[in-house]
Design brief:
By secondary structure, the chain is α/β, with parallel strands linked by helices. 42% of the residues lie in helices and 21% in strands. It contains six helices and seven strands. A seven-stranded mixed β-sheet has the order 3-2-1-4-5-6-7, with helices on both faces. It binds 5-O-phosphono-beta-D-ribofuranosylamine. 5-O-phosphono-beta-D-ribofuranosylamine binds next to helix 1 and strand 5.
Length: 203
């Protein structure tokens, strides 16, 4: 039984694209049934539209502020009967208005470091901090997201990437991003497998 997935985005959408491709190729038993963006101009929205997916933007300014925008976004996700929400480069903190509507639908987030290391920082800042710390290995984490938490929650998947001599933040980001695209698909596959497991146990 195919898992119904909603994806929240804000930017370029390469993780969304990785999921679109994996669903289309049948590498994961999931279907993206709704894409929500915090920004109208997000390239991720174009990717969704090109793939023929229902997609909408919920900019706070045009929707009565952050809480009202997130409440509406959650209503749309629930109306699409999502069984998993993936935050794939969603750049806002989700407030109570979102969680109250979403109920017990699980939410996962992707972060470009090996959490708990380098949590709470945005994209390029993470890689700058990794370089400044002089560590030799970094990576990415897909974790459960919960009300009131930032870059915390149970880890679902982690993948590693080396930090190489001569790296700058952009080069390191590109190497980590390759791992993100694998990790996000692996994470969704875990939820799809759990759904299938529950169905078989009930049969
Ligand atoms: C990724 O690095 C992700 O880990 C972080 O935001 C970035 C989103 O990239 N949360 P993209 O929009 O999926 O290309």
């Amino acid at each position: 039984m195919t898992l119904r997935v909603g994806v929240c985005v804000s930017g370029r959408g390469t993780n969304l694209q990785a999921l679109i491709d994996a669903c289309r190729d049948g590498r994961v038993d999931a279907r993206i049934v709704y894409v929500a963006s915090s920004r109208k101009a997000a390239p991720a929205l174009e990717r969704a539209k090109l793939a023929g997916l229902p997609a909408e933007a919920f900019p706070p300014a045009a929707n009565g502020g952050r809480d009202a925008a997130q409440q509406l976004m959650a209503r749309r996700l629930v109306a699409a009967e999502v069984e998993l929400v993936v935050l794939a480069g969603y750049d806002r903190i989700l407030g109570d208005a979102f969680w109250d509507v979403l109920g017990d639908v699980p939410v996962i987030n992707i972060h470009p470091s090996l959490l708990p290391a380098f949590g709470g920082l945005n994209r390029l800042k993470v890689h700058e901090a990794v370089l400044a710390a002089g560590v030799s290995v970094t990576g990415c984490t897909v974790h459960r997201a919960h009300r009131g938490m930032l870059d915390e929650g149970e880890i679902v998947v982690q993948r590693r990437a080396p930090v190489l001599r001569g790296d700058d933040a952009e080069r390191l980001e590109a190497r980590v991003l390759e791992q993100e695209h694998i990790a996000i698909v692996e994470a969704v596959a875990q939820f799809a497998a759990a759904k299938e497991g529950t169905r078989l146990a009930r049969a």
